Amino acid sequence: MKRGVFSILALLAVLLVLVGCTGGSSSNQPRENWRTGSEGLYINWLTNLPPPRIYDDQPVEVVLDVENRGAAPIGGSGDRVYLSGFDPNIITGIQTSGVLLPQMDGKTSFGPGGVGTVSFSGTIRKLGFRNVDKYTPRLLVTSCYGYETLASDNVCVDPDPYTSGNTPKVCTPNSVSMGGSQGAPVTIGPVEIEPSPGRTRFKITVTNSHGGDLFKPGLQILDKCSPYSDGGLTYSDLNSVQVQDVSIAGISILPSCKPLDKGFLRLNNGRGEMYCEFANIPGNAAYTTPITVKVAYGYRETLTRDLTILSIT
User: Fold this and answer.
1) Tens digit of pLDDT per residue, the chain (313 long)?
2) What would the DSSP string read from start to end of 75-138?
3) Which range of residues forms the domain containing residue 184?
4) Is 175 inside a domain boundary?
5) Residues 160 and 139 in one domain
6) What whole-number distance in Å separates Cα of residue 174 and Cα of residue 121?
7) Can you name the residues that pair with 271 across neighbouring β-strands?
8) How many domains does the chain have?
């Protein structure tokens, strides 16, 4: 009898341990609202690499922490980081072609995005031969990468908005925020709704929310993002996003969107607006349905660090 009681108690103890290890943890549960924030690539100097002061008999070692804080992947063939701001006759060995960013997945409902490092190594030519005791360049890091923003929300569609009387309606067309920020440096929304019989018009706002340089996507234009590029990004390259999708419940209304130039929307002072239409809506009853908007673009950001190089001679 005692042996049976001890066996039951032991089994209960094991079950309690298992419940404590699994049932009480929510780390594997998906987060409901994860597509937030206005960052894509985060990049920063690693401490003392380089230190603020070095001598001309030392190498220049630059190491950068990189992190994908947004919801889209990073690490395509044109996604690069460049180091400039120094005289190449004094600091040599730094590749003007830049360094590829590591492949980093975007954050998901289960966790944050990927992390990695980017490094540069250069050699200093002796300052004494140039009759210079000190050289103080300001190092410039330039990151260039392709990114995208995907936003969705529920909107009210009313095929007969002027119906009066006792006709019940489940919703009234109103502006939607598209969730605020969407885990990317470019934000979609708000979306203003203008209903009319048989059709609904949408005014969609697109904003550069993070302060970096926005430009058209594509490998050729990403190459022009480099500080070593001959021509650099032009007016026609900058401040434009490619509108890849505008759909209502999976039905594309992209062909109706204006003003687009070959699929591109231009932003002025960091903000652009397009007008799209959902036409030939069947029936008379109002209903809620998802709207989805997707845009692609290139993005450039910079950071600097002052460096002092002293002659040992």
Assistant:
1) 444 544 544 544 544 444 344 444 445 566 667 888 999 999 999 999 999 999 999 999 999 999 999 999 999 999 999 999 999 999 999 999 999 999 999 999 999 999 999 999 999 999 988 889 999 999 999 999 999 999 999 999 999 998 766 678 899 999 999 988 899 999 999 999 999 999 999 999 999 999 999 999 999 999 999 999 999 999 999 999 999 999 999 999 999 999 999 999 999 999 999 999 999 888 889 999 999 999 999 999 999 999 999 998 7
2) --TT-EEEEESS-TTTEE---TT-EEPPPBPPPBTTB---EEEEEEEEEEPPSGGGT-SEE--E
3) 149-297
4) yes
5) no
6) 55
7) 207, 268
8) 2
Any idea which residue has 């440096």 for tokens? 185
Alpha carbon separation from 269 to 45, 191, 214 (Å, rounded): 30, 19, 11
Same domain, 53 and 191: no
Both 197 and 117 in one domain: the answer is no
- CB proximity list for 165: less than 8 A, separation 6 or greater: none
Give the integer Cα–Cα distance in Å for 234 and 261: 16
DSSP 50-79: S-SEEETTS-EEEEEEEEE-SSS-B--TT-
Question: 255: Cβ–Cβ under 8 A, 6 or more apart, which residues?
Answer: none
Nearest-CA neighbor of 258 among 237, 276, 244, 246? Answer: 276
Is 2 domain-assigned?
no
Q: At 172, which amino acid appears?
A: T
Question: Which residue type sits at 277?
Answer: E
State in Å, rounded, how far the first CA of the chain is from the last one.
Answer: 91
Determine the residue type at 288: T
3-state SS assignment for residue 183: coil
Residues 289 and 164 in one domain: yes
AA letter at 85: G
